[in-house]
Amino acid sequence: MSTTVARVWSALGTVLDPELDEPITGLHFVASHDVSDSGVARVQLRLPTFYCAPNFSFLMVADAYDAVSATDGVTRAEITLLDHHASREINDGVAARAGFMETFEGEAVDDLEELRRTFFAKAVLAGQDRVARPLVDAGATPAELAAMTLGEVPPSVDLDRLRQRRAALGLPHVDDSPLLMHADGSALTTEQVPLHLRRARVTRIGIETNGEYCKSLLVERYGPGVAAAT
Amino acid sequence: MYEKDGEKYFIVDSHSHFWDASRENWKPGREEFAKGWIDCFYGYHKLGPPETHWDYERYLKIDEEDFVRDVFEDGKVDVAIFQSTYLKDWYTEGFNTIERNGALAEKYPGRLIVNGRFDPRDGDAGLKQLEEDARRWNLKGVKLYTAEWQNGSRGWSLKDPESYRFLEKCRELGIKNIHVHKGPTIWPLNKDAFDVKDVDQAATDFTDLNFIVEHVGLPRIEDFCFMAVQEPNVYAGLSVVIGGLMHARPKFFAKVIGELMFWVGEDKMTFGGDYHIWTPKWQIEGFLDWQMPDDEAFSDYAKLTVATKKKILGLNAARLYDIPVPEECRLPEAAVDEPDYPAEHLKDAVPA
After folding, report:
1. Which domain holds residue A132?
2. ipTM given for this complex
């Protein structure tokens, strides 16, 4: 069974906080996880505050449910969000396989896929800063950057992530796709490069600063041992 | 007023509170939400330096003596602006209402300004209340929570036609400063509630009003920056930015200030100490001592000058609220003309 537990952990590692674009495992949002002899996986999730946005919270619980349910050796998944103002609605909604709008009937006006896409688009812009910044620091000129393709960039975790997010949005992500691109996937002119990089950087800073708040608040809420608890 | 290296700084704390989150005020049946709210604040409180931390019970409610000591005496704040927050769904007497703030403000004339609020979902009764509040408290500003719950509705948008009726009323009543909460952890259910696009449209249509986006839309600072570039009457309220980042995450603080200086500019950034999420003293002293780091990673961010700090800590808000500034704290005339928009040339390049 311990291998199943390990597989559940790996599955949880594919679940992202959509706003922060980081796995919930690395954010220490998984409070506990185990698997019973009959293959029932029980996962408890926790968030930095009681009032963390229910839409993002719902996405994380629902994605965790899907990822854990699909894990080999798991017969059933029970995902519980702890200590949250909408814990009950979210837990019940996800367990019943209800969508967000159904769960918050009369309160939510949009389902969440568009929200997810909005944040993938931010991740794509921020990711261009992560990949291009070392090149800029090494002296790459705007003309070189405008012409550069993904295949010409040295391999890195950030590059893989950028390709994945672009693929998720149906944007160019193969070797001969441009490294820098507009939101619609088109390439930049040399003149557009400096401002594009500034936009990419502020987007990355926004996401990362938000992440820093979340990490500090999680520690304040659950204690300095939070990182060791899982 | 602070004095440092022979320079005098007039301090306006443009985002302050005098709340009652005591257990007696937790609405029966809603205790979990009332506690959840103040616990959330307490989490933020702990992002400040440890020596400034209070115990939880004291944090729930403070008295006049605490306020006067922390803000006026230790904090040396010249003028503080109260932003009223109601939350009557969870707190029987409200969290931090205009009456509670106003009662204190009346005891310290010239030192405290009280801002009101409106919620377009209140309809005609809300308009009438706004008129009464404006007369009673001589309102120059309001604080709006577009994500606030009300009777099954979980938020509204500044660009709603109903909202425009209230903005028109503000204009008529001489309320020219519209503070909008666009920040972290305030239970937005739908994306619109924390999106800053509604401010964009309202700012375009009400060019004679100032829109101060509190917490600079922090979860989405980039959206705020792209919008602020296009709207000369949009300001960056630094509440939560200094308190939440300067001590706890100094590198991120530097990056956020650097980006705001670039996109928004020093003429449009206003200090807010968020009392009593945090006390103002460490924030003001820390900011006066602070400078953009010299590391390579920060090399294309602007350094802060004495004038920058004077504007952010007081002069910008003084201009918005017509607060008289003593001669010795002012900048030379040339520096206080119309606000400058450093990134104005970028207008056409940011996404629509």
Report:
1. 114-210
2. 0.91
